[in-house]
Amino acid sequence: MRRPLLVPLIAGTMLVSAGLVLIASSPLHAGPLYTLNTLCSVAGAPSSRCTVEAVDQGSVTLYRHRIGKQETVIGISEEPYVRMGRWNHATSSWQPLSSATARLSANTVCFNGTDLCVVNPNYLNSLRQEKGAAFNGRDLLKVTFGSDGRINAYCYDDGCPSTAP
Q1: With b meaning 16 or more CB within 10 Å and e meaning fewer, what string describes 102-129?
Q2: pLDDT value at position 47?
Q3: Considering the chain, what percentage of its residues have pLDDT values greater than 70?
Q4: Rounded distance, CA 165 to CA 114, Å?
Q5: pLDDT-derived band at 80, boundaries 50, 70, 90
Q6: What's the CA gap between 113 and 115, in Å, rounded?
Q7: Most buried of the four, 42, 51, 109, 137, by CB within 10 Å?
Q8: 92: Cβ–Cβ under 8 A, 6 or more apart, which residues?
Q9: How far is 27 from 6, CA to CA, in rounded Å?
Q10: Rounded Cα gap, residues 4 and 120, in angstroms
């Protein structure tokens, strides 16, 4: 099963600017790699039940987060380097993310601060297996991106600003 690595996420860049497209078609027409019933929160609201589907669509892994009738799709591509974006249903285009954060102890991944947070042990446990000792003693991993999609900063644990979710 293909899943992007968090370490390249920390060391990579996200989807941005004109001409950079994760996929040619809408992110809503592929079969799931896995489906997870879990908890999500949107815009800092309390967590509620949601479903996450991980979908391999060529060079992109899509994570569809469904909370009630609301759906948020995050796309992560590894080629030629890690890029991340959020699908905008209204414009049928990818919007750049400004940050991604993982709290390993809570199995939580957040995008753009607390715009979207999800408990996803499937994703984070696979990272722990792949990275082994590199994650020992680590809890918080955060990356921030510039408007051009390149990393502005990344941090671990106490090296992260106190505003990190």
Answers
A1: bbbeebbbbbbeebbbbbbebbbebbbe
A2: 93
A3: 75
A4: 7
A5: low
A6: 6
A7: 109
A8: 26
A9: 21
A10: 14
CA angle, corner 141, sides to 138 and 143, nearest 5? Answer: 155
Residue type present at position 87: W
- CB proximity list for 134: less than 8 A, separation 6 or greater: 7
pLDDT in tens, 45-62: 999 999 999 999 888 899
- Tokens 């890690």 belong to which residue? 82
Q: Supply the pTM of this predicted model.
A: 0.75
Q: Which residue has the tokens 């408007």?
A: 147
DSSP 47: P
Q: Which amino acid is at 132?
A: G
Residue 38 reports pLDDT greater than 90: yes
| Residue reference for tokens 């919007």 | 95
Token output for 10: 């920390």
Coil, helix or strand for 157? helix
